[in-house]
Known about the structure:
The complex is a heterodimer.
Chain A (H helix, E strand, L loop, with lengths): L9 E7 L1 H19 L3 H26 L1 E6 L3 E3 L4 E9 L6 E9 L15 E7 L4 E8 L5 E12 L6 E16 L7 H13 L6 E3 L3 E7 L11 H6 L4 E7 L4 E7 L15 H22 L2 E7 L6 E4 L2 H13 L19 E7 L12 E5 L3 H4 L9
Parallel strand pairs in A: 3-9, 13-14, 13-16, 16-17
Antiparallel strand pairs in A: 1-9, 2-4, 4-7, 5-6, 5-8, 8-9, 10-12, 11-12, 14-15
Helix pairs in contact in A: 1-2, 5-6
Chain B lengths: L2 H24 L2 H19 L8 H21 L6 H18 L4 H19 L5 H33 E3 L7 H28 L24 E2 L12 E8 L12 E8 L1 E3 L4 E3 L7 E5 L7 E2 L12 E7 L6 E2 L5 E5 L5 E5 L5 E3 L10 E6 L5 H7 L16 H14 L7 H6 L1 H20 L5 E2 L14 H9 L1 E2 L1 H14 L4 E9 L1 E3 L4 E5 L3 E8 L5 E4 L4 H9 L5 H20 L3 H15 L2 H20 L3 H35 L7 H19 L10 H7 L5 H19 L6 H19 L3
Parallel strand pairs in B: 15-16
Antiparallel strand pairs in B: 2-6, 3-9, 3-19, 4-17, 5-6, 7-12, 8-11, 9-14, 10-13, 11-14, 12-13, 17-20, 18-19, 20-21
Helix pairs in contact in B: 1-2, 1-4, 1-5, 1-6, 2-4, 3-4, 4-5, 5-6, 9-11, 9-13, 11-13, 12-13, 18-19, 19-21, 19-22, 20-21, 21-22
Amino acid sequence: MRRPVGRTRIRYRYRIRFAGLLYLAMTLLLGVAAATRPNNLLVWIFGVMLGAILVSGVVSGFMLMRLEVRRVDVGTAIAGRTSRLRYELTNRSRFWSAFALWIREHPVGKMDGWEHGLETPQAHVMQIPPGESVRAEAWIEPRRRGAVRLREVAVSTRFPFGLLEKVLRHELPATLLVHPKVHPLRRDLLDALRGRAEGISDLGRRAGAGGEFLGVREYRPGDSLRRLAWKRLAGTSRLAVVERSSGGPPRLRLVLDLGRRPEEIRTRAGEDARDAEERAIELVASIASAAGELGFETGLEIVGVEARRIEPRSGRRVLERIMDALARIDLTAPRTRVAAGASSNVREVRVVVEPGEATTLDATERSWRFGSGRLDAFVADAEAGTT
Amino acid sequence: MSLGRRVRLEVLILAVLAIAAFCVSQRSFGMFLFASGLAILSWYVTEGPRGRRLPKWLSLATLGVIVANACWEWFLRPDPSEAMSILGRFSMWLTVLKLYESRGARDDAQLLALTAVLVISGTLETIDLLFAVLLVAYGLDVMRVAMLIELASVAASASVGSAADGGPASGRRFTRSLRRTVGFTLAGATVTAMVVFAVFPRRLDADPRRPFGGGPVSGFVDEVDLFSGERITESRREVFSVRWIDRQGESVRFPQPMLLRGAVMDRYQVVSNRWIPARGPSQARTVTVREDLPMTPLSIPSVRPRSETYRQQVEMRSMSTATAFAAFAPIGVHTEERRTFAIDERTLVVREIGLDRVSRLQSYEVQIEPYPGPETLAPLLGRRGGAVPSLPEFPIPEIREIALELLSDLVDGELPTADQARADPEVRWERNRIVSRAFASWLQDTARFRYTTDLRDFIRLDGEDPIVAFLQRHRFGHCEYFASALVALCRSVGVDARLVTGFVAMEWDPGTRQYLVRESNAHAWVEVRTGRFLWSSIDPTPPESLESIASSGRGWFDRFRWIYDRAELFWSSRVISYDGAVQASLAERLGREFEGAGDRVAAWLDDGRSRLAQRLSLGRTATVWFLAVSATLMAGAAAGALVLRRRRRVRRRSGLPRSAPAASLEAASVHLETMDLWDRAGLAPASWQPPRAFLQSLGASWSEAVALSLPIVDLHYRSRFAGEVPTTTQLGDVRQRLERLRILLRRPH
Lengths: 387, 749
């Protein structure tokens, strides 16, 4: 396991806080008073105050000098949901405990994904005993999907007196993928989706180890003798075997059509084309999530921007891949004008989602086309508190 | 106790400490009881079973009252010297108010700032030891509380924003770590404060012992100011103790109150109403004490006393001064260490004038001839022949009128005139004696004059001299007024008189057979010339008043007061009186110490070597051998200590029992060193990962290093958990692997 800690670039910074400025001003005033009035107690207090400033710098310096930090498993987050960023801090000092530490992400530029509305996450640690490691978690709640580039982690402390803040910035590049927001969809929509899929599921039957009769075919070497169609044998001289079907899960191919330029998108009044595209992405993510829960084999095809096609599969892994693909969509990238074609696979339901209002009413048995404007209509009332 | 509650408790303690310090500076016990009582009550109100807080509107209303009170105080006494007191009281009530409000970490920080203002206000008001003790306690505590507040603020922010497993802010381990950090912080701040205190530039002419505000306290002064009319607080602080030792070496009691002279003033400033020492060409003679003599004479040639002499032993308890208080007439001086004194030939006042002002007089001994003759006094006063010059007449005509009127009433029979007195010295001395005694008797009449230290009713009219006001209108005052009046009356009718300040020793302790001299024994009296060289002491203050002062305020606490006074002597002599001159003196002494330090060290080493050789009867070569063997043994001991320390560390880290064989310990040591090498290379196992699993998880680029490391890890694990004792061959093998690994991991990957 690579531990990048030892090789990270570290930058040191001191910040004087407002309380520290006040304290400095007070110390200076006392110094002047001590110099002008023959009062040794004032000199003593002045000395103690200077000592406090000095010790404040030294103590915080000692605490942070041998402190190491790394991010633990930078995974994914979901827009609109609370998630965690985890850090591991190790105090390499043999003598000093580290107290009252703040750990913050330090965004270098605004265009690293932070424009997607991520508040700067921060974690805290009360104490790290010498030679020990502790983990800290920062709660994050991104408002929009996207890839957020994490560059630096700033560890700071205002201990012991809160006058100075010493900051150590560790360069630890990583990427946090924020999945699109997932809305709970209406039950009738899901039922309709399930009905269609089951309606065409007969077309999708294939030979397997199921219990239902599929057909009779010629015997091939290796076929089990138990599967011989004895009745057919009686009429012909050829050996035949009975084929039984396996019940495959319903298949859903989601197509996100982003091939249109923003000005071609028919949006509702007051809605931005980019917002419509984001809503389209959210709708696809919501359908994919719901389909996954219903046991669909789900796949994704993104039209108009460069993205890999994901073939329908079942399970969490494929859902993760779909969400990752949706999170990575760069809406600023140039578009290719390729219309979403009809499905060639008779065994799958195809749902095409496009931003804004749908351009055509393509609602066949195997294919649906939705505009992102339908998102509000599809969302279950659960979001509003009822089901 | 939760961290937040603990912080609130600590802040309360700090507030009470600051209130106590401020009240000590104001000398107001009542205010302390009231304010600290309110502060302590706040804990029950806010943290008690009901946990009430002051409503916002009531808090604002109280704040308004506090502000109005401060403004009113300022309106009543718009005196800049009162500003800090008013600010302090304002801060104190504000502190108490805030203790009743609901508080967060920010409010606690504000409370800390308020208490700091409170303490600084007190600092500008007093230099008392008790205040200093409270100040130091506050200073140390405030840093600790500031740290706790900082921790509490992190905990409070964290409870809403993030989570951590950084451990709770409580428990023995946390407390120990925090205590260590606090200890270091306090030590660092204290050392810095001491350095700053030592080197901070001070004005050479400033007198750091002079108190600031807070009203005058009874005590010795070398200039008498009759201008200020305030109440003088009677202080029972022990200043010094005096033994009066006769020729047989026994400590005896003086037949009357012993007047110990400290300063003599013969010039009155009419404008400022101050008595000051006469100015003129320096007539001081310096004497350096010789330690080999039992007593160093203060005159040249030394006097041969005709009458009985006594030794006056003085031991300082709380006062730090260069003045050697002595009865009349001092003829010799002795101290434990070499010191230089100056004796004023006009007044016979003895002062220490040594350049080294770092260490003040702690104890000294003065030889006294209480009834000196001309043979003693002439050499002390510099054998000045010729006519004795008279002191100038007192410059206020009203006093002369009063004096002449009194003379006619008080003196029975014919009194020689001033002209007759000038013509015949014997007549002059007799006249001086009669006149001064008559005036003193008149002043001592308690039916006519009243002794008091409270001069708040001593109201002066514009242009009226305080002595005239004392004699004509008020007829009350303290010893300075009585003595000033007598000097003024005497000098107005041609009698040479001067004002003397010092202490009167009256409190005889039969157990220790010594006098205890307190601040309240500070006194002023008069000396009248009654001979060519002789000045006689006359005290016009009613003797009953002195006795009542001496006996007043004696309580059980006075029995233990010497402990406090000892501390106060140190405080006064080492801290409060640390001024520019002491600073310069200290720097000079340090310079001298460091000058030629190398030579001194070499000489010391050489001296040590020769002493050793002498003691062991060794020659030069044998000494060298002895030293070489000793050095080798010491190096061996140091190496042994290092090995033991390393073994202990290995045992602690690897969890091996104390009974583990040396070979297992060695295998563990090699294993730990291996893991440290990986760590230094930027690779370390996660906390949950065993070393073997960690090594196996590394990529192909580390295969060679992993191959070297795995047998080391395996050997340690077999030894640690399977009880296998590694053989010498195995240990040699793992050591070789370790060396190769060391080289390998240095290369960039």
